[in-house]
Each structure stands twice: as C-alpha cells, then as structure tokens.
C-alpha cells in the first residue's frame, strides 16, 4: 500500500515535536523516544504532511503477519532529520518506530554503512583496537590499552547483537 501523502500529528501534548504524538511520562522514555506510535489521536493535533510511505505485511508459514510502515523522506524530530521505520505484530497494536538518522544528503547511506560495519566481526575488532590506541597512545600502557580494546570490542559486540549480555554485566 503506497501513500503519496501522510498527514500526521508529530507533536506531543505540550506541542513539542515527537514521533509518537504523546506526552513523555514513563520510565521507558529513552526507549519510547526511539520506538513508538507515529501519532496519538488523544493529544492536541498539529498536522503536517510527512511525505510518502509504504505499508506492507509479511506472513510466516503459519499465516501470522507483521506489518511494516516506512516513511520515504526524513522527518524533523527533536531537531534531527530521521527516517521512520515502523513495525507492529498485530493490527491491535500501534506501530513502533525506529528513527534512522538521515545523513547530510538526506539519505540512509551513512546509517547503512555503520550497520554493515557493525555486522562485520573484523571491522568491530579494528574499531576497538583503534579506539584503544587513540585513547591511550603511550607505549608504556600496553596492558591497559589491551584491556580497553577488549572492553570496547565487548560493547560493540553487544550493540551489534552478536553477543548476549551475561547476567552479571
């Protein structure tokens, strides 16, 4: 389903830009600021055209569907230009949106390059090594620099989803 125009409310109850269109009240605010409904009909509406979108469903072997809603042009939220990519597992749920930062050209190229780098084990290891070297350039700090590189690599692996966090970390 292609929609050439989408008139949405992208402000919260106080009138500030917000992809969800709801006031920020819960402890889950940092997560919800990245994932959440694109609009809420209970709040005061400040409508504007947020551009074209594509909405589609993918079904698994059992016929269960996940529905996706992706906006094709960046939207200004919290002073940043972002693409909104939404997903919901049930028509009864609101879409949850991932905010993908737009680069200087208004595209997702930089984001996709970062994503590809995070998916490559060797690139993560090299990034961790370079970070440790830049953070501790002295030759007398070899052991500490090695520990920093290992810690940075662990953080990158967690962020990339290639390592599961341990219960004690």
TrEMBL record:
Question: What GO cellular-component annotations does this UniProt entry give?
Answer: membrane
Instruction: Provide the topology term for how it sits in the membrane.
Output: Multi-pass membrane protein
> InterPro entries, alphabetically?
ResB-like_domain
Say which domain of life the source belongs to: Bacteria
Location(s) in or outside the cell: Membrane
One Pfam family of this chain: ResB
A GO BP entry: cytochrome complex assembly
> Ranges for the ResB-like domain?
35-138
Alphabetically ordered keywords of this record: Cytochrome c-type biogenesis, Membrane, Transmembrane, Transmembrane helix
Know the name of this protein? Cytochrome c biogenesis protein ResB
């Amino acid at each position: 389903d292609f929609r050439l125009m989408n008139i949405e409310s992208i402000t919260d109850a106080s009138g500030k830009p917000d992809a969800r269109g709801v006031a920020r009240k819960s402890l889950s605010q940092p997560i919800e600021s990245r994932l959440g409904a694109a609009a809420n009909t209970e709040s005061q509406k400040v409508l504007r055209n947020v551009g074209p979108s594509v909405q589609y469903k993918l079904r698994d072997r059992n016929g269960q569907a996940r529905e996706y809603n992706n906006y094709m042009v960046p939207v200004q939220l919290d002073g940043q230009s972002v693409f909104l990519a939404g997903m919901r597992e049930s028509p009864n749920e609101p879409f949850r949106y991932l905010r993908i930062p737009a680069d200087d050209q208004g595209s997702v190229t930089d984001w996709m390059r970062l994503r590809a780098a995070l998916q490559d084990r060797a690139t993560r290891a090299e990034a961790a090594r370079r970070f440790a070297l830049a953070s501790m350039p002295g030759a007398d700090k070899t052991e500490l620099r090695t520990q920093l590189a290992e810690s940075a690599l662990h953080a990158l692996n967690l962020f990339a989803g290639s390592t599961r966090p341990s219960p004690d970390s």
